[in-house]
Amino acid sequence: MASIKQATVAQLRGMAPASVIHGGVDSVQRALAQLNSKDTPIEKYIYLSQLRGTAKDTFYRLLIDNIIDICPYVYTPTVGAACQLYSTIYRKPDALYLSYNDRGNLAEIMSNWPQHGIRIAVVSDGSRILGLGDLGIGGCQIAVGKLTLYVGGAGIKPDSTLPIILDMGTNNETLLNDPLYLGLRMKRVYDDAFLDEFYAAVRTTFPDCLIQFEDFSSESAFKYLDRYRHKESLIQAPSAPSGQLHTGKCFNDDIQGTGAVILAGFINAVKLASAASGRPILDQRIVFLGAGSAGVGVAMQLVEFFTRNGFTEEEAKQKFYLVDSKGLVTDDRGDNLPAHKRALSRKAGGPQFKTLEEVVEHVRPSALIGLSTVGGAFSEKIVRMMGSFKARPIIFPLSNPSHLSECTFEDAIKWTNGRVIFASGSPFKAVEHGGSTYESNQGNNFLSFPGIGLGCIVAKANEVNDDMVYESALALADSLDDSEINTLLYPRLHRIRDISATIAARVAKAAVRTGAAENSKLGGMADTDLLAYIKSKQYDPTPC
Ligand code: NAD
Predict the structure, then answer these.
(1) Tens of pLDDT along 2-51?
(2) Same domain flag for 114 and 204
(3) Same domain, 223 and 304
(4) pLDDT at 1 > cutoff 50
(5) Which of 120, 134, 340, 425 is at a distance of 20 to 30 A from 316, taking alpha carbons?
(6) What pTM did the predictor assign?
(7) Which positions in this protein are listed as binding a divalent metal cation (predicted)?
């Protein structure tokens, strides 16, 4: 336990209890006791937000040392309520607020941010927060929460992080009619020029900053990822000296981070399934319920798994069946399919099915993945069918929060008599069944995005390319220890800082390999040296 430096002791006498000045009860222990005295998750969230703002090192020590217990109060599920209640529980600003009315001046406004040397920004427009829809300016808490996890999970320094909310109005009538609502009181605008100005402002104000897009509605998420991710593309940028700017230095966690984390779990799942059935690992048919940013992002990442293992893209895509609210996604369904769904739609002329049950019955899949936000959509009949097709069916109900999960762990275990290979988006407790205890897996993005971000920072990556994302998934899949390897799909969360460092090292090396790393020192570094270097740089606070 540290005490306040001797030099300042004389000046502080009488200004605080002696135990605080000379080092008495640990501030982290006190913070934990105060946290435990709060009754509800949202009270704990508010308390932790204040602690982060007033005693940063204490807050992060508390988070790092109690990561499993505290995560739910700084991010999902509590952050959902914090976004919904933002204008009611607001006490002080904790993000950069860029409103549509500020267009034309974004770079100037951004330069008001007190910290320099920003290395990572998380930005949302609040248009599709978790499974909760358009929460307008309240979406800023998603950016704040995510960066808190970057600090806690990867050891990125808090002062080099920047949460940003783009306030472009909201279509949420409840918010527009709320007298306390803090955002712009207007219908949401969609304006690519505003996004371009924002993107250019970050790049010119904070040249080393990686931008992570978060919780944009699906179409915007795909559009802006595609627009900004490649280092070769150019956009008009009045704030840049030449009036133009190369893009790159960004990624979208809902699409790429989710893709990586689910691919990691899927790789370990197909190994277990193949060991049980004796069938080849790549012999898979996969049905997805939900074809939004996460559904298509995950499906595309899994397609890459098959193409990197010898299949052509067409052959790989044939393994996938996407189902959305209108049924099986096909080229000839008769509606206007958005481009991201078209990438994986089934060819014209095949059967048209309206329900998941019909699709599962017809396809007889080896894996069923839910990213639909429809709680309970994997019914008993569907899960039992899955159990009848395969010795170990793979079922990933990934929608959040828990009540939107497509099925519970307990039901999946019960309906398959313990044979299911299961991962969910929200955590589920272990289940007792037939005299055995089954531990659940959570395909939590928290296992991957801190490592991806840290790897990009270390490499000074000028883009986050497919090789880097794919490598992050392999690194995560490889990170099971002896106690996890034949039973779990993911490593346990308490090892997150080590896992993030390992992922970061492999992402950084992939950046070097693909010409995306601007840090020339990494090229000749041995893998073990790089890992040790990354660990030595992780923020590891000692509060006084
Ligand atoms: P989204 O809103 O972009 O997509 C939802 C999709 O589900 C849409 O395609 C929609 O058409 C479809 N859908 C809605 N109702 C349906 C119905 N009745 N039947 C079939 N499909 C239906 O959302 P998203 O970003 O893709 O996220 C989806 C879910 O995935 C969320 O609950 C989110 O929390 C979860 N998620 C989990 C993880 C994870 O586990 N690591 C990561 C990201 C997202």
Answers:
(1) 445 555 777 888 888 888 777 666 899 999 999 999 999 999 999 999 99
(2) yes
(3) no
(4) no
(5) 425
(6) 0.94
(7) 214-215, 254
